[in-house]
Amino acid sequence: MSKATNLSMRTFLVFVSLCCCLCGWTQTSSPESPQQQCMAAGDSLYPQKDSAVVKLQTMIEMQQGYISGICILSHKGDSIRGAIFNEFGITAMEFRYAISNDEVRLTAVLPMIDKWYIRGVIRKDLREVLHALRDGQTVWQDEKYKIKFKFTPLKDIDTDDEIEEPAFQDQ
Fold first, then answer.
1. How far is CA 120 from CA 25, 105, 145, in A?
2. Shortest CA distance to 59 belongs to which of 31, 30, 16, 99?
3. H or E stretch including 87?
4. Nearest 5 degrees, angle CA 91-CA 51-CA 43?
5. N or C end of the chain: which has fewer CB within 10 A?
6. What are the pLDDT digits (tens) for 127-139?
């Protein structure tokens, strides 16, 4: 096997590992699109108010397949804190979006995806995803890497209300 083939194979495997580690493989189906579900419920996709928390079901589709998980966004001061984890609670990444600078900083990433070239793609994609959520869009696609992000607000099972609540207070 040539060095070029070995390098491209390694890059592909790192990308697949990133995708698998973000949230885990699942299959779900819904009769309505995420856009229709969001519009019908009138849910917020972006934590507008200070101390607000938004919880979103996240689906990330790629050419190789798709993954799903949970994204939690918390507005605190001049920044949005976020975390993406799978349904089993394994955190793939934590990040902070500085609203005034329009900049995403990754604060924690799984060691297996903690590579400089992956971090760059993740930072850029998260920044664009947050812009889309702020504008009320439930879908955003990275055209270069053919990665599609879909979001659906999670519902409170007891009250069926949208989940935007005060964040935990620092003690």
1. 23, 10, 13
2. 30
3. none
4. 80
5. C
6. 999 999 999 999 9
